[in-house]
Each structure stands twice: as structure tokens, then as C-alpha cells.
Write a structure and sequence with these properties.
The chain is mainly α. It is built from twelve helices and no strands.
């Protein structure tokens, strides 16, 4: 496992496109809350403003993870992982740890820097924000894992395209649901966690999760939605990837 992770990290460091993505992601995560219509003068307003771009963040980390994973198939380096006798489960876990986790931290660390700046400007709502931070990190990791695993299923550079299609379909679903229910589900965070089971299922299935994270105080049901969504997403695509890798059709 350790050798697989080290090899993947070594290949990732040599990808120029990765460092370009890291640079622009760093600028985006720090600057985006300050270029919105909301005046950011406290931790609470920073978090609220940042969450308004959750769909963009989701697509960002997913496509970055999918791009890095896809290069391994494009250059046929992933074939040697199988030929070396590594089990399918070992390969899947190593990809999530060596690609999904670093990509998640690339987005989360500049977010923390921006949050720290906001805290210096004003600590209003800092307790509530800190309670949501672990869930925000888990949501980012879920998005990154999706990008990695969907690429492992297609075994090509098609992964970033499928990530984009997935995010667009979910946005369309949220818009249709908003029009049907007569309320803006993309902005009204509390609506998604207090409505009927259909609304909760919709939010749990979506990558953005911004409805829950934009809600007021975090309740156990809200935390459960995010955790269940993460577990279902991870298990679903991990099982599909495992089945494909077991065929060893390379």
C-alpha cells in the first residue's frame, strides 16, 4: 500500500497541470468570498459566502481528481499496478488516499487561510462555523473520491467530462425541484432539512450539500445526511471500480 501511494504521489508531483490547478484553486478559495455581494467582515459571513460557490468547489475538486487519475490510464502506468500483483481493493484504497485526499487538502487549506483572515476581521458565529468545518471537509473529500472512482470505472480521460455532466444534472435537478416546490432549494438551506423525506433524499444524493451546510445550527439529522451521503457515494463507486478491476481487462 505504501509503495503504491508513494508512486502515485511521485507521478502527481511531476504533472505541470496539477500545480497550475493548485495555484488558481488557492486564489479562488481565498478570494471568492470577498468578491461576492456579501460584505465579509466575520467568520460567519465568510462561511456563508463561500458555501454559495459549493457547486463550483465540488466540480473543481472532482475534475482535478479525475484528471490526475485519468493520466494514469492515458499513459498506461496504471497497468503496472495490476501486473505487480496488487489486489483490486488495495489499488482502490491507495488511489483515494494518494489522489482524492491530497486534492481535497489543496482546496481545504486555502479555505482555512481565508477563514482565518475573516476571523481576524470579526469572530461572529465562529463557534457555529467550526462545528460545520469537519462536515465541509468530508463533503469535499466525497467530491474528490467521486472524481477518482468514476475515472477508475471508465479507465480513460473521460472522467472529467462525466464529472461535469454529473454536476450539471444535479444542478438541473435542484432547479426543477425548486420550481416544483415553490422555494429556492439552492439558497434556502433550512428547507432541505425540514421538508419531507423526498427533499432529504434529494439533498443527500447531491454533491453540493450546501443546503445542509447553510442551515443554522447543526442538528443530528443534518450531520447524518452528510455522513450517509458520503458512505453511499463511496461504497457505490468503490464496488463498481472493484468489479471492473477484478476482470483485469487491460
Amino acid at each position: 500500500m505504501g509503495k503504491l501511494i508513494k508512486a502515485e504521489l511521485f507521478r502527481t508531483k511531476r504533472i505541470n497541470g496539477f500545480w497550475v490547478c493548485v495555484f488558481f484553486t488557492f486564489l479562488y478559495m481565498i478570494a471568492v468570498p470577498y468578491v461576492t455581494d456579501i460584505e465579509v467582515n466575520s467568520a460567519e459571513k465568510f462561511f456563508t459566502s463561500a458555501m454559495s460557490g459549493m457547486a463550483v468547489m465540488g466540480m473543481l475538486v472532482s475534475m482535478m481528481a479525475a484528471y490526475i487519475t485519468g493520466r494514469g490510464y492515458y499513459h498506461r502506468t496504471c497497468m503496472y499496478e495490476v501486473m505487480a500483483g496488487n489486489s483490486s481493493l488495495r489499488i482502490i484504497v491507495s488511489k483515494c488516499l494518494s489522489i482524492s485526499l491530497p486534492v481535497t487538502m489543496v482546496v481545504y487549506i486555502p479555505h482555512l487561510i481565508g477563514l482565518s483572515i475573516a476571523c481576524v476581521m470579526g469572530g461572529e458565529g465562529i463557534t457555529d462555523v467550526l462545528a460545520k468545518e469537519p462536515l465541509f471537509l468530508l463533503t469535499l473529500f466525497r467530491m474528490s473520491c467521486f472524481g477518482t472512482l468514476i475515472t477508475m470505472c471508465t479507465r480513460s480521460m473521460l472522467g472529467p467530462v462525466l464529472v461535469y455532466v454529473r454536476v450539471m444534472l444535479e444542478s438541473i435537478a435542484m432547479i426543477i425541484a425548486s420550481a416544483t416546490m415553490g422555494r429556492d432549494l439552492m439558497e434556502g438551506g433550512a428547507d432541505l432539512v425540514t421538508m419531507d423525506s423526498a427533499g432529504k433524499i434529494l439533498n443527500t444524493a447531491c454533491l453540493s450539500q450546501q443546503g445542509v451546510l447553510l442551515s443554522g445550527s447543526m442538528e443530528s439529522s443534518m450531520v447524518l445526511q452528510i455522513i450517509i451521503g458520503f458512505v453511499i457515494e463511496l461504497l457505490l463507486w468503490s464496488v463498481i471500480s472493484y468489479i471492473i478491476y477484478e476482470k483485469k481487462d487491460y
